[in-house]
Structures are given as structure tokens and as C-alpha cells.
Amino acid sequence: MSKVVKNKLYVFNETHKECEICGKSAELRPYGPNGANVCFECGMKDEKTAIQMFEKRIKNVDTMVIVTNKIMHNIWILFIAGAGAI
Ligand SMILES: [Zn+2]
């Protein structure tokens, strides 16, 4: 789960759930169309929307805190870090 507290976005690893687009069990993020929870592959099929949804999420955020013990294995975290740098 990720949550915004004051102006900080805390990004955590997610437990696997069913993607709202393809139904695959995966780590989901709310960056699909209209904030749908999607797997990485579905998110990247429409990368422009994924970036827009992420930017909406960080609108009032000035600090991002990534809370994970497996950062190199989390492809969403890499996306978030990249999109945040755009
Ligand atoms: Zn999917």
C-alpha cells in the first residue's frame, strides 16, 4: 500500500491481488485508467496514463519515502522513481 501523509508519499511493497484489467495476480498500483489497480504489464501498455495517474497521486507531495526490503526486485518502484524524476 502507498499513502500520502502530509506532504510525504510512502510507497510500500503490495501484496499480490488480481489486476483490474487482465485478472493476473500481481503487485498492483492505481495507475490504470481512472485509477484502476493494474499490474505492471497493463500499466506499461498505456504508460502515458500511468504517468498521469502517478503525477495526480504526487500532486501535493514534496517527499517520497520508499519502504521496501527488496527494491531491486520491485519493477513498480523503479517506475515510480523514474516517473517522479520526469
Ligand atoms: Zn494486468
Can you offer a commentary on this structure?
The structure is a single chain. This protein has one domain. It has three helices and five strands. It has helices spanning 40-45, 47-57, 75-84; strands spanning 2-5, 8-12, 17-18, 25-26, 63-67. The chain has a three-stranded mixed beta sheet with strand order 1-2-5, with no helix packed on it. The protein has a two-stranded antiparallel ribbon with strand order 3-4. The chain is globular. It binds zinc ion. Zinc ion binds next to helix 1.
The fraction of residues in strands falls at 15-25%
How far apart the termini lie comes to 23 Å
Ligand catalogue? zinc ion
For the report, how would you describe the main beta sheet? 3 strands, mixed
Question: Nearest-angstrom radius of gyration?
Answer: 12 Å
List low-pLDDT spans. none
**Helix-strand pattern:** EEEEHHEH
Total strand segments: 5
Strand order of the largest sheet: 1-2-5
Percent helix range: 25-40%
Could you say which overall geometry the principal axes of the C-alpha atoms support?
Answer: globular
Number of helices: 3
Query: What is the residue-mean pLDDT, rounded to a whole number?
Result: 85
Structural class: alpha+beta
Whole-number count of domains: 1
